[in-house]
Amino acid sequence: MFSKFQVPQTSLAEGNHPCRPIEHALLPRQFSTSGQKPAAVVTANPKKDEEGNDMLIDITERAAKRLQEIMAKDSNPSLALRVTVESGGCHGFQYLMSLTNMSAVSPDDDTVFEASNGSGAKVVMDEPSLELLKGSKVDFTMELIGSQFKIVGNPAATSSCGCGTSFDIKP
């Protein structure tokens, strides 16, 4: 009999083959009762969708770190990543990303998100773009073809192009 904290040891000598399933005692799992800390918080001009839900995005650790590096390199803590969506691209809509100064942010039209990790990394979106991107994440990827900020996990997208800069939406 195994205690609930031990996994039984087996060997090929006992007739167990590596391709055969081996029954293991289940280990207890620890679950947190506290909610997961959001990766970004709204710092200016929060928006709600038609159902009254907050329109939010997340900023991954990699994206926050890269934005922090850019701010440090440029000695400009007022830099933010502006993400917009426009018609075009091979799937109907395309993501456009650029660096902007917080002084250029419209207090009436733009929503500002800040990474909750203390990096000071900010992402700015206008309301029409946020409507299409709510629930998604801003990430930073490094691939053979180059490195870039990227939108991942967009719940409104039904398909996207191979490079990830264009997407189609649910009707």
What can you tell me about this protein's structure?
By secondary structure, the protein is mainly β. The protein is built from 2 helices and 10 strands. It has helices spanning 61-73, 127-133, and strands spanning 40-44, 58-59, 79-87, 93-101, 110-115, 122-126, 137-143, 146-152, 157-160, 166-169. The strands form 2 sheets. Strands 1-5-6-3-4-10-9 form a 7-stranded mixed β-sheet. The radius of gyration is 22 Å and the shape is globular. Mean pLDDT is 78; it is low at 1-35.
- Assign the structural class, choosing from mainly alpha, mainly beta, alpha/beta, alpha+beta, or little secondary structure: mainly beta
Give the strand tally.
Answer: 10
Shape: globular
Q: Main sheet, how many strands, which sense, barrel?
A: 7 strands, mixed
What order do the helices and strands come in, and which of them pair?
Elements: E1 40-44, E2 58-59, H1 61-73, E3 79-87, E4 93-101, E5 110-115, E6 122-126, H2 127-133, E7 137-143, E8 146-152, E9 157-160, E10 166-169
Parallel strand pairs: 2-7, 3-6
Antiparallel strand pairs: 1-5, 3-4, 4-10, 5-6, 7-8, 9-10
